[in-house]
Amino acid sequence: MTERIVKSTKETPQISDKIVVNDQAKREIMNRYEMRFIASKQFAERARRVLPAGVTHDLRTFNPFPVYMDRALGSHKWDVGGNEFIDYWSGHGAMLLGHSNPKVLEAVARQLPRATHVGGSHELEIEWAEGVSRLVPSAERVRFTGSGTEATIMAIRLARIFTGRNKILKFAGHFHGWHDAVSPGSDPPYDQPSVPGIPPEVQKYTVIIPPNRPDLVEEQLRQDSDIACVILEPTGGHWGAVPIRGEFLKTLRELTIKYGNLLIFDEVITGFRVSPGGAQGYYQVKPDLTSMAKILAGGLPGGGVAGREDVLAFIENRPGKAKMRHPGTYNGNPVSAAAGIAALKQIENGEVCARANSLALLLRNRLNEEFALHGFPWIAYSDFSMFRLLPNYHGPRPVKATSDNNGMIPYEGDLHLLDGPKDSSLIQTFRQALMLQGVDMPGLGGWLTTAHSEADIEQTIQAVIHVLDELYSN
Ligand SMILES: Cc1ncc(COP(=O)(O)O)c(C=O)c1O
Question: Is 390 helix (H, G, I), strand (E, B) or coil?
Fold first, then answer.
Protein backbone atom coordinates (compact mmCIF):
# COMPACT_ATOMS: atom_id res chain seq x y z
CA MET A 1 0.00 0.00 0.00
CA THR A 2 1.39 3.37 -0.92
CA GLU A 3 0.04 6.79 -0.22
CA ARG A 4 0.38 9.85 -2.44
CA ILE A 5 1.84 12.94 -0.89
CA VAL A 6 -0.23 15.29 -3.02
CA LYS A 7 -3.25 15.36 -0.81
CA SER A 8 -4.94 18.47 0.45
CA THR A 9 -5.42 18.02 4.15
CA LYS A 10 -4.83 21.06 6.32
CA GLU A 11 -1.90 19.40 8.09
CA THR A 12 0.01 18.29 5.01
CA PRO A 13 1.45 21.01 2.79
CA GLN A 14 0.85 20.75 -0.94
CA ILE A 15 3.92 19.55 -2.75
CA SER A 16 3.03 21.60 -5.78
CA ASP A 17 3.73 24.75 -3.74
CA LYS A 18 7.27 23.57 -3.19
CA ILE A 19 8.67 22.75 -6.55
CA VAL A 20 10.76 25.76 -7.40
CA VAL A 21 14.06 26.29 -5.67
CA ASN A 22 14.55 29.89 -4.64
CA ASP A 23 17.49 31.41 -6.59
CA GLN A 24 17.95 34.21 -4.11
CA ALA A 25 18.34 31.58 -1.38
CA LYS A 26 20.98 29.86 -3.53
CA ARG A 27 23.05 33.05 -3.74
CA GLU A 28 22.76 33.72 -0.03
CA ILE A 29 23.84 30.20 0.81
CA MET A 30 26.89 30.56 -1.44
CA ASN A 31 27.85 33.83 0.30
CA ARG A 32 27.48 32.33 3.73
CA TYR A 33 29.51 29.29 2.65
CA GLU A 34 32.36 31.52 1.46
CA MET A 35 32.38 33.40 4.75
CA ARG A 36 32.05 30.44 7.10
CA PHE A 37 34.71 28.34 5.40
CA ILE A 38 37.09 31.19 4.63
CA ALA A 39 40.00 29.25 6.19
CA SER A 40 39.70 26.69 3.36
CA LYS A 41 39.79 29.31 0.62
CA GLN A 42 43.52 29.94 0.87
CA PHE A 43 44.21 26.19 0.65
CA ALA A 44 42.02 25.97 -2.44
CA GLU A 45 43.92 28.81 -4.12
CA ARG A 46 47.23 27.12 -3.32
CA ALA A 47 45.89 23.74 -4.51
CA ARG A 48 44.75 25.09 -7.88
CA ARG A 49 48.34 26.09 -8.66
CA VAL A 50 49.53 22.47 -8.44
CA LEU A 51 46.52 20.13 -8.60
CA PRO A 52 44.19 20.03 -11.63
CA ALA A 53 40.83 21.38 -10.46
CA GLY A 54 42.54 21.76 -7.08
CA VAL A 55 41.59 18.23 -6.00
CA THR A 56 42.76 14.61 -6.05
CA HIS A 57 39.46 12.80 -6.76
CA ASP A 58 36.66 13.89 -9.11
CA LEU A 59 34.05 13.58 -6.37
CA ARG A 60 35.88 16.15 -4.27
CA THR A 61 35.56 18.88 -6.91
CA PHE A 62 33.43 21.62 -5.37
CA ASN A 63 32.42 25.21 -6.01
CA PRO A 64 33.36 27.84 -4.99
CA PHE A 65 36.03 25.77 -3.20
CA PRO A 66 36.09 22.53 -1.20
CA VAL A 67 36.30 22.57 2.58
CA TYR A 68 39.70 21.34 3.76
CA MET A 69 39.43 18.73 6.47
CA ASP A 70 41.84 18.58 9.36
CA ARG A 71 40.88 15.57 11.48
CA ALA A 72 38.16 12.98 12.01
CA LEU A 73 36.94 10.91 14.93
CA GLY A 74 34.03 8.47 15.04
CA SER A 75 31.22 9.91 12.91
CA HIS A 76 32.51 13.47 13.03
CA LYS A 77 35.21 15.49 11.31
CA TRP A 78 36.62 18.98 11.65
CA ASP A 79 37.89 21.39 9.01
CA VAL A 80 40.93 23.65 9.07
CA GLY A 81 38.78 26.47 10.48
CA GLY A 82 37.55 24.33 13.39
CA ASN A 83 34.06 23.72 11.95
CA GLU A 84 32.58 20.35 12.97
CA PHE A 85 30.58 18.05 10.68
CA ILE A 86 28.63 14.83 10.97
CA ASP A 87 30.30 12.84 8.22
CA TYR A 88 28.51 10.71 5.63
CA TRP A 89 31.45 10.39 3.25
CA SER A 90 32.81 7.84 5.70
CA GLY A 91 36.08 7.72 3.77
CA HIS A 92 34.29 7.04 0.44
CA GLY A 93 32.60 4.15 2.22
CA ALA A 94 35.80 2.68 3.67
CA MET A 95 35.28 3.61 7.33
CA LEU A 96 32.48 1.26 8.38
CA LEU A 97 33.87 1.38 11.92
CA GLY A 98 34.00 5.18 11.95
CA HIS A 99 37.08 7.36 11.91
CA SER A 100 40.08 6.55 14.09
CA ASN A 101 38.70 3.23 15.28
CA PRO A 102 40.87 2.48 18.36
CA LYS A 103 41.63 -1.15 17.43
CA VAL A 104 42.62 -0.21 13.87
CA LEU A 105 44.79 2.64 15.16
CA GLU A 106 46.45 0.32 17.66
CA ALA A 107 47.20 -2.28 14.97
CA VAL A 108 48.67 0.37 12.67
CA ALA A 109 50.73 1.88 15.49
CA ARG A 110 52.10 -1.56 16.32
CA GLN A 111 53.10 -2.18 12.72
CA LEU A 112 54.53 1.24 11.78
CA PRO A 113 57.86 0.97 13.63
CA ARG A 114 58.30 -2.65 12.54
CA ALA A 115 58.08 -1.91 8.78
CA THR A 116 55.90 0.06 6.39
CA HIS A 117 57.09 -2.11 3.51
CA VAL A 118 59.16 -5.24 3.88
CA GLY A 119 59.78 -5.76 0.17
CA GLY A 120 58.91 -9.39 0.66
CA SER A 121 56.42 -11.83 2.09
CA HIS A 122 55.19 -11.35 5.65
CA GLU A 123 52.87 -13.08 8.09
CA LEU A 124 50.22 -10.37 8.14
CA GLU A 125 49.29 -10.96 4.50
CA ILE A 126 48.48 -14.59 5.35
CA GLU A 127 46.40 -13.60 8.38
CA TRP A 128 44.59 -10.98 6.28
CA ALA A 129 43.76 -13.52 3.55
CA GLU A 130 42.65 -16.03 6.19
CA GLY A 131 40.27 -13.38 7.55
CA VAL A 132 38.82 -12.78 4.08
CA SER A 133 38.41 -16.52 3.49
CA ARG A 134 36.57 -16.92 6.80
CA LEU A 135 34.11 -14.12 6.02
CA VAL A 136 33.52 -14.24 2.26
CA PRO A 137 31.68 -17.39 1.12
CA SER A 138 33.30 -17.63 -2.35
CA ALA A 139 36.86 -16.85 -1.23
CA GLU A 140 38.82 -20.06 -1.84
CA ARG A 141 41.89 -17.96 -2.69
CA VAL A 142 42.73 -14.27 -2.23
CA ARG A 143 45.21 -12.00 -4.01
CA PHE A 144 45.80 -8.49 -2.70
CA THR A 145 46.09 -5.42 -4.92
CA GLY A 146 46.72 -1.73 -4.34
CA SER A 147 43.13 -0.50 -4.87
CA GLY A 148 39.61 -1.41 -5.98
CA THR A 149 40.40 -0.35 -9.53
CA GLU A 150 43.31 -2.79 -9.62
CA ALA A 151 41.03 -5.47 -8.21
CA THR A 152 38.53 -5.18 -11.07
CA ILE A 153 41.39 -5.10 -13.59
CA MET A 154 42.55 -8.40 -12.13
CA ALA A 155 39.13 -10.03 -11.95
CA ILE A 156 38.38 -9.20 -15.57
CA ARG A 157 41.75 -10.32 -16.84
CA LEU A 158 41.48 -13.60 -14.97
CA ALA A 159 38.02 -14.12 -16.45
CA ARG A 160 39.41 -13.55 -19.93
CA ILE A 161 42.24 -16.00 -19.44
CA PHE A 162 40.02 -18.61 -17.80
CA THR A 163 37.28 -18.52 -20.44
CA GLY A 164 39.41 -17.68 -23.48
CA ARG A 165 36.87 -14.97 -24.32
CA ASN A 166 37.38 -11.23 -24.65
CA LYS A 167 34.31 -9.16 -23.81
CA ILE A 168 32.74 -8.12 -20.53
CA LEU A 169 29.06 -7.54 -19.85
CA LYS A 170 28.36 -4.72 -17.41
CA PHE A 171 25.38 -2.65 -16.35
CA ALA A 172 24.67 1.02 -16.99
CA GLY A 173 25.40 3.11 -13.93
CA HIS A 174 27.69 0.51 -12.35
CA PHE A 175 31.06 1.84 -11.28
CA HIS A 176 34.05 -0.45 -11.08
CA GLY A 177 36.98 1.99 -10.97
CA TRP A 178 38.42 4.06 -13.78
CA HIS A 179 40.29 1.67 -16.09
CA ASP A 180 39.44 1.18 -19.78
CA ALA A 181 37.30 -1.96 -19.59
CA VAL A 182 34.86 -0.66 -16.98
CA SER A 183 34.66 3.09 -17.59
CA PRO A 184 32.15 2.95 -20.45
CA GLY A 185 28.57 3.12 -19.16
CA SER A 186 29.44 4.04 -15.60
CA ASP A 187 27.89 7.51 -15.90
CA PRO A 188 25.13 9.06 -17.99
CA PRO A 189 24.44 9.53 -20.85
CA TYR A 190 24.22 5.75 -21.10
CA ASP A 191 23.19 5.73 -24.74
CA GLN A 192 26.49 7.35 -25.85
CA PRO A 193 29.00 5.53 -23.72
CA SER A 194 32.06 7.12 -25.23
CA VAL A 195 34.85 7.86 -22.77
CA PRO A 196 37.55 10.37 -23.74
CA GLY A 197 40.94 8.68 -23.88
CA ILE A 198 39.66 5.15 -24.47
CA PRO A 199 39.93 4.04 -28.11
CA PRO A 200 36.58 3.03 -29.66
CA GLU A 201 38.07 -0.39 -30.55
CA VAL A 202 38.75 -0.98 -26.86
CA GLN A 203 35.27 0.15 -25.83
CA LYS A 204 33.79 -2.44 -28.18
CA TYR A 205 34.86 -5.12 -25.72
CA THR A 206 32.54 -3.68 -23.07
CA VAL A 207 28.88 -4.53 -23.57
CA ILE A 208 26.52 -2.35 -21.52
CA ILE A 209 22.89 -3.10 -20.73
CA PRO A 210 20.44 -1.66 -18.17
CA PRO A 211 20.35 -3.36 -14.75
CA ASN A 212 17.56 -5.61 -13.46
CA ARG A 213 16.66 -6.93 -16.94
CA PRO A 214 17.29 -10.70 -16.93
CA ASP A 215 15.76 -10.92 -20.40
CA LEU A 216 18.45 -8.61 -21.84
CA VAL A 217 21.20 -10.45 -20.00
CA GLU A 218 20.09 -13.75 -21.47
CA GLU A 219 19.74 -12.26 -24.95
CA GLN A 220 23.32 -10.91 -24.81
CA LEU A 221 24.83 -14.08 -23.40
CA ARG A 222 22.98 -16.25 -25.90
CA GLN A 223 23.93 -14.25 -28.96
CA ASP A 224 27.53 -13.33 -28.04
CA SER A 225 29.82 -16.26 -27.28
CA ASP A 226 32.77 -13.90 -26.72
CA ILE A 227 31.56 -12.64 -23.32
CA ALA A 228 34.01 -13.71 -20.64
CA CYS A 229 32.26 -12.34 -17.59
CA VAL A 230 29.36 -10.43 -16.13
CA ILE A 231 30.44 -7.84 -13.56
CA LEU A 232 28.18 -5.82 -11.29
CA GLU A 233 27.80 -3.92 -8.05
CA PRO A 234 25.58 -6.50 -6.34
CA THR A 235 23.29 -4.04 -4.53
CA GLY A 236 23.01 -1.73 -7.52
CA GLY A 237 25.10 0.73 -9.49
CA HIS A 238 26.63 3.74 -7.75
CA TRP A 239 26.05 1.90 -4.46
CA GLY A 240 22.35 1.43 -4.82
CA ALA A 241 21.17 4.35 -6.96
CA VAL A 242 19.14 1.74 -8.83
CA PRO A 243 18.87 -0.98 -6.19
CA ILE A 244 19.42 -4.62 -7.09
CA ARG A 245 18.05 -7.36 -4.87
CA GLY A 246 18.50 -11.09 -4.49
CA GLU A 247 16.32 -12.40 -7.30
CA PHE A 248 18.35 -10.70 -10.02
CA LEU A 249 21.59 -11.99 -8.50
CA LYS A 250 20.27 -15.55 -8.47
CA THR A 251 19.20 -15.25 -12.09
CA LEU A 252 22.62 -13.93 -13.07
CA ARG A 253 24.21 -16.90 -11.36
CA GLU A 254 22.01 -19.33 -13.28
CA LEU A 255 22.52 -17.58 -16.62
CA THR A 256 26.29 -17.33 -16.30
CA ILE A 257 26.49 -21.03 -15.47
CA LYS A 258 24.27 -21.80 -18.47
CA TYR A 259 26.36 -19.75 -20.92
CA GLY A 260 29.82 -20.43 -19.45
CA ASN A 261 30.66 -16.92 -18.26
CA LEU A 262 32.30 -15.99 -14.98
CA LEU A 263 30.23 -13.94 -12.56
CA ILE A 264 32.11 -11.14 -10.82
CA PHE A 265 30.65 -9.34 -7.84
CA ASP A 266 32.34 -6.00 -7.37
CA GLU A 267 32.05 -5.78 -3.60
CA VAL A 268 34.40 -2.82 -3.21
CA ILE A 269 31.56 -0.98 -1.43
CA THR A 270 29.32 -3.83 -0.28
CA GLY A 271 32.05 -6.19 0.94
CA PHE A 272 32.02 -6.48 4.76
CA ARG A 273 29.29 -3.78 4.81
CA VAL A 274 26.03 -5.46 3.77
CA SER A 275 26.96 -8.41 5.98
CA PRO A 276 30.35 -9.81 7.12
CA GLY A 277 30.30 -11.86 3.92
CA GLY A 278 29.18 -8.91 1.78
CA ALA A 279 26.18 -9.02 -0.56
CA GLN A 280 27.03 -12.61 -1.53
CA GLY A 281 26.87 -13.63 2.14
CA TYR A 282 23.53 -11.90 2.62
CA TYR A 283 21.89 -13.13 -0.58
CA GLN A 284 23.60 -16.54 -0.58
CA VAL A 285 24.71 -16.24 -4.19
CA LYS A 286 28.30 -17.31 -4.87
CA PRO A 287 30.11 -15.41 -7.62
CA ASP A 288 33.20 -16.88 -9.26
CA LEU A 289 35.29 -13.83 -8.43
CA THR A 290 34.89 -10.89 -6.06
CA SER A 291 36.70 -7.57 -6.17
CA MET A 292 37.19 -5.88 -2.82
CA ALA A 293 38.81 -2.78 -1.32
CA LYS A 294 37.84 0.00 1.13
CA ILE A 295 36.64 -1.77 4.35
CA LEU A 296 38.93 -4.68 3.40
CA ALA A 297 41.95 -2.57 4.34
CA GLY A 298 40.37 -0.93 7.41
CA GLY A 299 40.35 2.47 5.73
CA LEU A 300 43.94 2.32 4.48
CA PRO A 301 44.87 1.85 0.80
CA GLY A 302 44.41 -1.67 -0.49
CA GLY A 303 42.26 -4.03 -2.49
CA GLY A 304 42.01 -7.64 -3.52
CA VAL A 305 40.35 -10.35 -5.55
CA ALA A 306 38.89 -13.43 -3.93
CA GLY A 307 37.32 -16.41 -5.60
CA ARG A 308 37.61 -19.84 -7.09
CA GLU A 309 40.88 -21.63 -6.63
CA ASP A 310 40.91 -22.86 -10.23
CA VAL A 311 40.52 -19.30 -11.54
CA LEU A 312 43.04 -17.61 -9.27
CA ALA A 313 45.41 -20.47 -10.15
CA PHE A 314 46.13 -18.56 -13.36
CA ILE A 315 48.28 -16.22 -11.27
CA GLU A 316 50.53 -19.20 -10.51
CA ASN A 317 53.38 -20.49 -12.66
CA ARG A 318 52.14 -23.84 -13.96
CA PRO A 319 53.75 -25.80 -16.78
CA GLY A 320 51.75 -25.51 -19.98
CA LYS A 321 49.26 -23.03 -18.52
CA ALA A 322 48.88 -19.32 -19.20
CA LYS A 323 50.12 -17.12 -16.40
CA MET A 324 48.57 -13.78 -15.52
CA ARG A 325 51.36 -11.44 -14.53
CA HIS A 326 50.65 -9.61 -11.32
CA PRO A 327 53.29 -7.36 -9.83
CA GLY A 328 52.31 -4.30 -7.72
CA THR A 329 54.54 -2.49 -5.23
CA TYR A 330 51.86 -2.08 -2.58
CA ASN A 331 50.13 -5.46 -2.88
CA GLY A 332 49.54 -6.80 0.64
CA ASN A 333 51.21 -3.81 2.28
CA PRO A 334 51.85 -4.69 5.94
CA VAL A 335 50.34 -1.50 7.37
CA SER A 336 47.17 -1.95 5.31
CA ALA A 337 47.17 -5.62 6.29
CA ALA A 338 47.39 -4.74 9.99
CA ALA A 339 44.48 -2.29 9.64
CA GLY A 340 42.48 -4.76 7.56
CA ILE A 341 42.92 -7.60 10.03
CA ALA A 342 41.85 -5.36 12.92
CA ALA A 343 38.78 -4.21 10.96
CA LEU A 344 37.69 -7.67 9.81
CA LYS A 345 38.00 -9.07 13.34
CA GLN A 346 35.52 -6.47 14.58
CA ILE A 347 33.14 -7.11 11.68
CA GLU A 348 33.18 -10.90 11.85
CA ASN A 349 30.32 -11.50 14.31
CA GLY A 350 27.83 -9.45 12.30
CA GLU A 351 26.98 -6.84 14.93
CA VAL A 352 28.83 -4.03 13.18
CA CYS A 353 26.98 -4.51 9.89
CA ALA A 354 23.65 -4.92 11.68
CA ARG A 355 24.16 -1.69 13.62
CA ALA A 356 25.13 0.37 10.55
CA ASN A 357 22.24 -1.15 8.58
CA SER A 358 19.70 -0.32 11.29
CA LEU A 359 20.94 3.28 11.55
CA ALA A 360 20.56 3.74 7.80
CA LEU A 361 17.07 2.25 7.91
CA LEU A 362 16.16 4.71 10.65
CA LEU A 363 17.61 7.61 8.67
CA ARG A 364 15.76 6.69 5.46
CA ASN A 365 12.44 6.16 7.26
CA ARG A 366 12.70 9.33 9.33
CA LEU A 367 13.67 11.44 6.32
CA ASN A 368 10.68 10.14 4.38
CA GLU A 369 8.40 10.92 7.31
CA GLU A 370 9.69 14.47 7.48
CA PHE A 371 9.60 15.02 3.71
CA ALA A 372 5.94 14.01 3.72
CA LEU A 373 5.15 16.11 6.78
CA HIS A 374 6.71 19.21 5.26
CA GLY A 375 5.57 18.56 1.72
CA PHE A 376 9.03 18.43 0.19
CA PRO A 377 9.22 16.63 -3.15
CA TRP A 378 12.14 14.46 -2.01
CA ILE A 379 12.50 10.80 -1.15
CA ALA A 380 15.14 8.80 0.70
CA TYR A 381 15.82 5.24 -0.41
CA SER A 382 18.44 2.50 -0.99
CA ASP A 383 19.36 -0.56 1.04
CA PHE A 384 21.55 -1.72 3.95
CA SER A 385 23.86 0.96 5.41
CA MET A 386 23.59 3.26 2.41
CA PHE A 387 21.12 6.03 1.71
CA ARG A 388 20.24 8.09 -1.34
CA LEU A 389 18.18 11.23 -1.68
CA LEU A 390 16.16 11.98 -4.76
CA PRO A 391 14.96 15.55 -5.31
CA ASN A 392 12.01 16.56 -7.47
CA TYR A 393 10.32 13.25 -6.80
CA HIS A 394 6.62 13.12 -7.61
CA GLY A 395 5.74 9.45 -7.39
CA PRO A 396 3.89 7.57 -4.66
CA ARG A 397 5.17 8.08 -1.13
CA PRO A 398 6.90 5.11 0.46
CA VAL A 399 5.46 3.15 3.35
CA LYS A 400 7.86 2.67 6.24
CA ALA A 401 10.53 0.09 5.41
CA THR A 402 10.77 -2.69 7.97
CA SER A 403 13.94 -4.41 6.85
CA ASP A 404 17.32 -3.46 5.39
CA ASN A 405 16.19 -4.09 1.83
CA ASN A 406 12.42 -3.78 1.60
CA GLY A 407 12.12 -0.02 1.19
CA MET A 408 10.24 1.30 -1.82
CA ILE A 409 12.36 1.75 -4.92
CA PRO A 410 11.28 5.04 -6.50
CA TYR A 411 10.02 5.04 -10.08
CA GLU A 412 10.16 1.23 -9.99
CA GLY A 413 13.92 1.41 -10.49
CA ASP A 414 13.93 3.45 -13.71
CA LEU A 415 17.60 3.94 -14.56
CA HIS A 416 17.24 7.35 -16.16
CA LEU A 417 15.05 8.81 -13.42
CA LEU A 418 17.18 7.44 -10.57
CA ASP A 419 20.68 7.61 -12.01
CA GLY A 420 20.41 9.86 -15.06
CA PRO A 421 21.90 13.33 -15.50
CA LYS A 422 21.92 15.28 -12.24
CA ASP A 423 20.98 18.87 -11.41
CA SER A 424 24.50 19.78 -10.33
CA SER A 425 23.57 23.32 -9.31
CA LEU A 426 20.89 22.04 -6.91
CA ILE A 427 23.24 19.40 -5.51
CA GLN A 428 25.96 21.97 -4.97
CA THR A 429 23.66 24.38 -3.13
CA PHE A 430 22.19 21.56 -1.06
CA ARG A 431 25.65 20.43 -0.03
CA GLN A 432 26.85 23.96 0.75
CA ALA A 433 23.75 24.60 2.87
CA LEU A 434 24.09 21.27 4.63
CA MET A 435 27.72 21.96 5.49
CA LEU A 436 26.60 25.27 6.99
CA GLN A 437 24.35 23.12 9.21
CA GLY A 438 27.26 20.85 10.16
CA VAL A 439 26.57 17.84 7.92
CA ASP A 440 28.82 16.65 5.09
CA MET A 441 27.51 14.29 2.39
CA PRO A 442 29.27 13.18 -0.81
CA GLY A 443 26.38 14.38 -2.96
CA LEU A 444 22.82 13.21 -2.41
CA GLY A 445 23.42 10.34 -0.04
CA GLY A 446 26.13 8.61 1.92
CA TRP A 447 27.26 5.75 4.13
CA LEU A 448 26.48 5.00 7.74
CA THR A 449 29.05 3.63 10.16
CA THR A 450 28.84 2.03 13.59
CA ALA A 451 30.18 5.26 15.00
CA HIS A 452 27.06 7.22 14.02
CA SER A 453 24.50 7.68 16.76
CA GLU A 454 20.75 8.17 16.87
CA ALA A 455 21.51 11.76 17.94
CA ASP A 456 23.61 12.25 14.76
CA ILE A 457 20.66 11.03 12.74
CA GLU A 458 18.15 13.36 14.37
CA GLN A 459 20.56 16.26 13.93
CA THR A 460 21.01 15.33 10.27
CA ILE A 461 17.26 15.21 9.72
CA GLN A 462 16.80 18.63 11.31
CA ALA A 463 19.64 19.94 9.11
CA VAL A 464 18.15 18.52 5.91
CA ILE A 465 14.69 19.91 6.68
CA HIS A 466 16.18 23.30 7.59
CA VAL A 467 18.05 23.35 4.26
CA LEU A 468 14.98 22.39 2.24
CA ASP A 469 12.95 25.06 4.06
CA GLU A 470 15.55 27.59 2.93
CA LEU A 471 15.66 26.27 -0.62
CA TYR A 472 11.93 26.11 -1.18
CA SER A 473 10.99 29.32 0.65
CA ASN A 474 9.41 32.07 -1.43
C1 LIG B 1 31.99 -0.54 -6.65
C2 LIG B 1 33.36 0.06 -6.82
N3 LIG B 1 34.29 -0.61 -7.51
C4 LIG B 1 35.53 -0.16 -7.68
C5 LIG B 1 35.91 1.04 -7.14
C6 LIG B 1 37.29 1.54 -7.32
O7 LIG B 1 38.00 1.44 -6.12
P8 LIG B 1 39.25 2.36 -5.85
O9 LIG B 1 38.75 3.75 -5.66
O10 LIG B 1 39.88 1.78 -4.61
O11 LIG B 1 40.14 2.24 -7.03
C12 LIG B 1 34.99 1.79 -6.39
C13 LIG B 1 35.36 3.07 -5.80
O14 LIG B 1 34.59 3.81 -5.25
C15 LIG B 1 33.68 1.29 -6.24
O16 LIG B 1 32.74 1.98 -5.58
Answer: strand
Cα-to-centroid distance, 229 and ligand 1 (Å): 18
Class of the 15-37+351-471 domain? alpha beta
Relative to the CA of 293, which ligand 1 atom is closest? 10
171 closest CA partner among 79, 235, 262: 235
C-alpha 278 – ligand 1 centre gap (Å): 15
Q: Is the pLDDT confidence value at 17 over 90?
A: no
- Which DSSP category does 74 fall into? B
> Which one of 3.40.640.10, 3.30.300.30, 3.40.50.300, 3.90.1230.10 gives the CATH number of domain 102-347?
3.40.640.10
Atom of ligand 1 nearest to the CA of 150: 11
pLDDT band of residue 15 (cuts 50, 70, 90) is low
Residue 383: name the closest of 212, 242, 248 by CA.
242
CA of 149 to the centre of ligand 1 (A): 6
Nearest to 363 by CA among 448, 269, 444: 448
Q: Determine contact, residues 114/108, Cβ cutoff 8 Å.
A: no
**Ligand 1 mutation target, pool 90, 144, 176, most atoms within 8 A of CB:** 176
Query: What is the pTM (predicted TM-score) of this model?
Result: 0.95
What confidence tens digit (pLDDT) does each residue in 248-279 have? 999 999 999 999 999 999 999 999 999 999 99
Which residues form the pocket of ligand 1, taking CB atoms under 6 Å from any ligand atom?
92, 147-149, 152, 175-177, 233, 266, 268-269, 293, 303
For 111-128, b where at least 16 C-beta lie within 10 A, e where not — what string? beeeeeeeeeebebbeeb
